Amino acid sequence: MDLVVGIGNRLRGDDGIGPVLADAVPPRTGLETMSVHQLVPELAEQLTQVDRVLFVDAELRIQETSLRTIEPQQHSGLGHACSPQSLLHWTAFAFGRAPAAWLLSVPASRFDHEEALSAETASRIPDAQQLIEAWLEECGAPDAMTSEEEA
Questions:
Q1: Of 90, 91, 104, 119, which is least surrounded by CB within 10 A?
Q2: pLDDT tens digit string along 30-54?
Q3: Do 136 and 33 contact (CB within 8 A), yes or no?
Q4: Helix (H, G, I), strand (E, B) or coil at 50
Q5: pTM as predicted
Q6: With bands split at pLDDT 50, 70 and 90, how would you rate the model's confidence at 76?
């Protein structure tokens, strides 16, 4: 089974792009989608139930939408929220395995208290949806892909 996880807060402008994209994935057999404000260790058990997971999130420091594989990575910071890599680490640590994982990063610029995406981030939705569809169609998605490579 595959899982698409949209990360972000729809009330914080571009931060909502993850949930917007996850919620727009058409239903299909063998696929679950979910939206969360942040990743927390409590999601680790749910990850043990899937073969592949795609995390979808806004990213400030990039120029192009990108899809890349990610690996479990221990996070040394304090706090309840975690990165996709540290969630994978917690999953492997607590349950002995973590699913194959990818991260779809979408460029974002505004995280103000508003529900609307910026025009720039909203314009990236079609490219991001193509990358999600490519990931869903692949038995094993490419190691890294950008929206420019898809064009």
A1: 119
A2: 999 999 999 998 999 999 999 999 9
A3: no
A4: coil
A5: 0.88
A6: low
Q: Starting from the edge strand earliest in sequence, which strands make up the sheet with 2-7, in order?
A: 31-36, 2-7, 52-59, 100-107, 66-70, 144-146
Place of tokens 């571009």: 14
CATH topology of domain 2-112+124-145: Rossmann fold (3.40.50)
Find, among 76, 29, 36, the residue nearest to 55 by Cα: 36
For the chain, the domains span 2-112+124-145
Cα separation, 97 vs 99, whole angstroms: 7
Please, which residues have CB within 8 angstroms of residue 30's CB and are 6 or more apart in sequence? Answer: 1, 2
- CA atoms of 85 and 13, how far apart (whole Å): 24
Token pair recorded at residue 144: 């890294």
**CA 99 to each of CA 23, 141, 142: distance values in angstroms, whole numbers, following the listed order:** 21, 13, 16
Residues in CB range of 12: below 8 A, 6 or more apart: 111, 112, 113, 114
For the stretch 84-130, pLDDT in tens is: 999 999 999 999 999 999 999 999 998 989 889 999 999 999 999 99
Pairing status of strand 66-70 against strand 100-107: antiparallel
* Size of the chain in residues: 151
